[in-house]
Structure formats: C-alpha cells, structure tokens
C-alpha cells in the first residue's frame, strides 16, 4: 500500500488533538489526524460536565485538611474513591500530587494556567462559529451549591481571590437559587453563580463537529494505532488500517493514553489518571434544569445535556484500564434524586472515562527534549474540553515559528527532569 504523507501527524482525535489539528491546518500545515476510532471525541472528551470553565482559575489540587484526607483514605466520601489493589501503582503519583498542592506551588500552577483559562472560551467561540454549530454553546454559566455555612464561606473566600483575576460571580441565597432553578429541592446555605463559562450540551458532538470542520478544510482523519509510532530518517511513521502515514513532525495528544507513546521513547513524565463516571437520566414530568449544578458537599454534578440530565461523579483513583466500579454513581444517585426530579436512567450502564493529570495540574505542551519533530499536548486534567482549542493554538504557534500568545515555558516537559 502507498504511504500517506503529510507535514504533521496528530495522534488522538479528542478535543485536544482536534484543536491542535485545526490550528496547525489554519497555519498552512498539511495534517493527518489519527485515532483508534473512526469517530472523534469517543474517549475522555465524550464524558464530562460540558463546561468551558473560563472561571476556574484555581486548579483542583490535593486537599490539605487532615479530616478531609482521612475521609478520602477511609473511602467514605463520594468526592473521591480508590481501588486498594491499585494503590502501589498510583500512590507515588499521589505523593507528588500532594507536594505539588502546597499553597505556594498551587498558586504557581494557577498562574501558569491562567493565560490558557482566560482565552479558553474565545477560542471555542471562534471554532464553533466556523463549524456552524452555535446550538452547541449555551451562555448559561453554572451554579455551585453549598449545604453548610462553612463550605459556603470557603467558596466565597475563593471567589474573592478569583475576582482579582477577572472572574465574575455572585453569591446566591436560598431565594435566588429558587429563582434560577425552581425545580431544585433541599436546604442550601447558599450558592456561587458563575455567569461567564460556556456550557456544551453535547461535548462528544462538539469534538465531532470540529473534526468535520477539519475534514471540510482538507484535513484527513485516519484510523491508526499510535503505539506503532516510530522514528525514521525522514521524520515519523504510524501504521493505519489502510497503510502507513509519514510526516516530518508528530503531536502526541492521546490524553490518558499518551504514556503508551512517550514511555517507549524513554520519557518518564509522571502522567496519572483520575477516573470518573457519568449517567444520563430523564427528568420527571415537566421538571427543567436550566444550568449545570454542582452539589459541592455531596460530590456530584447535574448537567442538562441533549441526551438527558447527566449525573457526573468525582474522582476515582485506580489503574487506567481496570474494570469499572461505579460506586460513586451508586452513592450520589439517591442524593441527586432528592435534589432534582429524576426519572429512569437513559443509559444501560454508567460511562467510565479517565482524566489525564500531571501532579502540578498543568498540561505538557511543547517540543520533546530529545526527539526532533516530536511534540507533546496532553495532561489537561479536569479541563480537556475547556483547554483543547487554546492549547492547540499555543502548540501550533510554537511549531510554526509564530510568537506564542503566552510564555510556553511553564508547560515544558523538562520541568519533570
């Protein structure tokens, strides 16, 4: 079979990979987008809360409160769950995560990611307009509910800090919550309403719309096996279902599977995963949910997706490919039903995904230190949907010699030695 030739191979057709492919294409590069599936957005990009989180200045770091850590250790909270059998595999990563979450280092991570967060919605708006899918962006913002005065106060303090960096938000009392979401039930101390973030009612559909735009503009989307990546005298080669693909440069944008490519090449980047689950349910009767709503003290979020009300869970620490254990869905579903009128499940079983995370909660974006033509774009933690297009822009600027819109140094793989 004849080889397919291009300027760049992008490995991974999730939100991050598609974002990189589109921005490279915009800058005149001939790009082949490669995925194990013939449909974009079928992996991690498929399952999330649908938020373009332009208000999430502070990343989700390891807690410092001893009582909270003890609850996590005892597996007694729906916010976090872990597999005891997988502890030897992920404990070293958790230790690094803990030390990276000190107040000083957490602030460093926040400031490093801030330029990406601030441009995230702008980059999505441009691609959504070009893709012709305005219905996939809702400007509703989202609501973070609190059931105790203590947790509400902590959230109000964090909001005050975030406002220093341009975040907008309002504290809602019980009456204001009821005005925004008349069908919610329960006693709430209050809430924080973030009006700026966009909401995507079909995240997997948005990735597919971006991939379709890429193909309409002349890009090629090919099924292939990223694990076959090999360096050649002319660049890089990947085997596909219809033959090989070759290019001078290659981008690793495989999310939680990126280690399958970079480890055989000798890189020891500490990529971990935080697994998560979702389940779609029908609303009962005429009940309507107008915003994504996080029940912060109970560890779940409800989002009004096109498919139904999506219940998303917190974090599960386990081996990436271990069998699913949707304990958190079982724990939170009764609480969710008590808060909002939920009917029957639409999905036959909960969906499982894995969030790719580095200990400092900053993605790796940029050139591989020891291999010419090899580029990294992974580790977007809880913000793959949010950051895919903006990190794609940053990477494309670096690869094509443009002046990057922000200093790329904080995202370099070399920070891990």
SSE layout and pairing:
Elements: E1 4-11, H1 15-26, E2 31-35, E3 51-52, H2 66-73, E4 80-82, H3 87-100, H4 103-131, E5 142-146, H5 149-163, E6 170-172, H6 174-180, E7 190-194, E8 198-199, H7 203-216, E9 220-232, E10 235-240, E11 243-252, H8 259-262, E12 272-283, E13 293-295, E14 300-305, E15 308-313, E16 315-317, H9 327-339, E17 342-345, E18 351-357, E19 364-367, E20 374-378, H10 384-400
Parallel strand pairs: 1-2, 1-11, 2-9, 4-16, 5-13, 11-20
Antiparallel strand pairs: 3-8, 5-7, 6-7, 9-10, 10-11, 12-15, 12-17, 12-18, 13-14, 14-15, 19-20
Helix pairs in contact: 1-7, 1-10, 4-7, 4-10
What does this structure look like?
- The chain has 417 residues and is α/β, with parallel strands linked by helices.
- It has a domain at 4-45 and 204-270 and 360-416: FAD/NAD(P)-binding domain, CATH 3.50.50.
- Helices cover 32% and strands 27% of the residues.
- It has helices spanning 15-26, 66-73, 87-100, 103-131, 149-163, 174-180, 203-216, 259-262, 327-339, 384-400, and strands at residues 4-11, 31-35, 51-52, 80-82, 142-146, 170-172, 190-194, 198-199, 220-232, 235-240, 243-252, 272-283, 293-295, 300-305, 308-313, 315-317, 342-345, 351-357, 364-367, 374-378.
- The strands form four sheets. Strands 5, 6, 7, 12, 13, 14, 15, 17 and 18 form a nine-stranded mixed beta sheet that branches. It has a five-stranded mixed beta barrel with strand order 1-2-9-10-11.
- A hairpin with a 2-residue loop joins strand 10 (235-240) and strand 11.
- The radius of gyration is 21 Å and the shape is globular.
- The two termini are 41 Å apart.
């Amino acid at each position: 079979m004849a080889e397919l030739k291009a300027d760049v191979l992008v490995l991974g057709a999730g939100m991050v990979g598609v974002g990189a492919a589109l921005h490279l294409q915009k800058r005149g590069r001939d790009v082949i987008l490669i995925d194990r599936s013939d449909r974009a957005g079928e992996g991690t990009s498929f399952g999330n809360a649908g938020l373009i989180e332009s208000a999430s200045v502070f990343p989700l770091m390891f807690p410092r409160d001893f009582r909270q850590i003890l609850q996590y250790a005892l597996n007694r909270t729906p916010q976090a769950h872990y597999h005891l059998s997988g502890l030897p595999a992920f404990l070293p990563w958790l230790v690094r995560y803990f030390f990276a979450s000190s107040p000083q280092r957490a602030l460093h991570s926040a400031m490093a990611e801030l330029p990406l967060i601030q441009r995230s919605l702008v980059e999505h708006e441009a691609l959504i307009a070009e893709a012709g899918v305005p219905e996939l962006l809702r400007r509703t913002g989202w609501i973070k509910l609190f059931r105790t005065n203590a947790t509400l106060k902590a959230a109000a303090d964090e909001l005050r800090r975030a406002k220093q960096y341009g975040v907008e938000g309002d504290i809602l009392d019980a009456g204001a919550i009821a005005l925004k979401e008349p069908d919610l039930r329960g006693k709430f101390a209050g809430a924080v309403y973030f009006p700026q973030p966009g909401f995507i009612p079909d995240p997997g559909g948005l990735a597919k719309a971006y991939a379709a735009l890429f193909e309409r503009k002349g890009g090629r989307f090919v099924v292939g096996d990223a694990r076959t990546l090999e360096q050649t005298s002319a660049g890089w080669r990947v085997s596909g279902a219809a033959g090989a693909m070759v290019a001078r440069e290659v981008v690793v944008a495989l999310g939680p599977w990126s280690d399958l490519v970079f480890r055989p090449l000798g890189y020891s980047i500490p990529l971990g995963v935080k697994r998560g689950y979702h389940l779609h349910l029908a609303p009962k009767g005429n009940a309507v949910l107008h915003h994504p709503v996080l029940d912060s003290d109970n560890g779940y979020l409800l989002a009004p997706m096109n498919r139904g009300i999506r219940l998303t869970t917190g974090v599960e620490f386990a081996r990436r490919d271990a069998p699913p254990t949707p304990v958190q869905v079982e724990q939170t579903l009764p609480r969710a039903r008590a808060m909002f009128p939920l009917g029957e499940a639409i999905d036959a079983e909960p969906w499982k995904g894995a969030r790719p995370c580095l200990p400092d909660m900053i993605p790796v974006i940029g050139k591989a230190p020891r291999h010419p033509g090899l580029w990294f774009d992974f580790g977007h933690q809880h913000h793959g949907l949010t950051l895919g297009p903006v990190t794609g822009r940053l990477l494309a600027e670096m690869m094509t010699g443009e002046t990057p819109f922000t200093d790329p140094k904080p995202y370099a793989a070399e920070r891990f030695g």
